[in-house]
Amino acid sequence: MSAAKVILVCGSGGVGKTTLSAALALRLAEEGKRVLVLTIDPARRLADALGVGELDNEPRRVPTERGELRALMLDSKRTFDDLVVKNAPSPEVRDRILGNHYYRFVSERLPGVHEYMAMERLLSLLMAEDADVIVLDTPPTRHALDFLAAPDRMSGLMDEGVMRWLVLPATASGWRMLEMGSDVLAGVLKRLLGPTTIADIAEFFSGFQSLWGGFRERSLAVRKLLRAPGTHFLLVTAPAPGARAEAIAFLEVLQKDAMPFSGFLINRCAVPAPAVLPWPAAPDHRTAEEWAHVREEVTTALERRRALTGAQDRAIGDLLAHAPSGSPAWRIPDQPTDVHDLASLRRLGVALHDCGAVDAILGAG
Ligand SMILES: Nc1ncnc2c1ncn2[C@@H]1O[C@H](COP(=O)(O)OP(=O)(O)OP(=O)(O)O)[C@@H](O)[C@H]1O
Ligand SMILES: [Mg+2]
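# adenosine-5'-triphosphate complex -> structure
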């Protein structure tokens, strides 16, 4: 397995996870690293921000000035299919699973499967790709918590006891009897799972038996990876009082499960107003009265800015007072324009470097 660092960029909706993942990945690449950035957020924002037309399940090269940057977007169905193709014991079993109605439901719509496949994809990238760093852009916190729990849930599901319960009725024709005896159940299934029958489910589980061991093994490997010293969780948050609760709740989940927290990226911080603003004499084309008016407006704007940065400082102080002492908090300035191209990502990358976040990540683990 590659010894790449894994950086997971997490946080609530809209705080800037995708933007900062892209900016960090670009910066690391341009510092000479081989970087992969994977988004599990189905929105197209990463592709847009990086200026690549489209992203799919395979890494695509992003043009950089130095280093190597490749980006991809999780296709969870594709990832699942690839796993079946790779691990099925025979072409016959492979085709039986891929063509099964219940498999289609499981691979496309089973709650939690997208999150779990993100972890499988991360693992397969670590196995197959040469990279120094893998940056993972995640969906908003609630789902991020889902994917953190996914490997545990998956390995739990694959415990022998559960498996026996699911598979036995198939081998003892129990499912078939149930199906014949219950039109109601068949109707419910149809509504929930489309054209799936109980026989499909039984067939799926019997075909899948030979793959469970591998799934279980890999979910344990992911569990370990999420707690490894080369793994970094960055928590993106806003410098606002309302952002504290969710950020702290997320941090508590990480700590409870012994996952390594690297620091807060406090995104979109207002740039502080200068303490003193030397005021020039009125230019020739302005009357003294007009110039006094301009000065008044500038003073009001500066005061507003000071009030804003003061409120932000208090919110950040409050966040840190609730976090373990010494938690790093890197402030990322609010950019004057929307961040949607390589040039603006590069500027944000400079900010990530200047605040110390990049060195802290590269230096640690
Ligand atoms: N530092 C910044 N300065 C200015 N604009 C920013 C900054 N960071 C993010 N943005 C803008 O904020 C918006 C939301 O950012 P982004 O899509 O990265 O958030 P997200 O956390 O990935 O959202 P979601 O939870 O929906 O996936 C985008 O329009 C982005 O350009
Ligand atoms: Mg996003």
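# post-check
The mean pLDDT is 84.
The longest strand covers residues 261-269.
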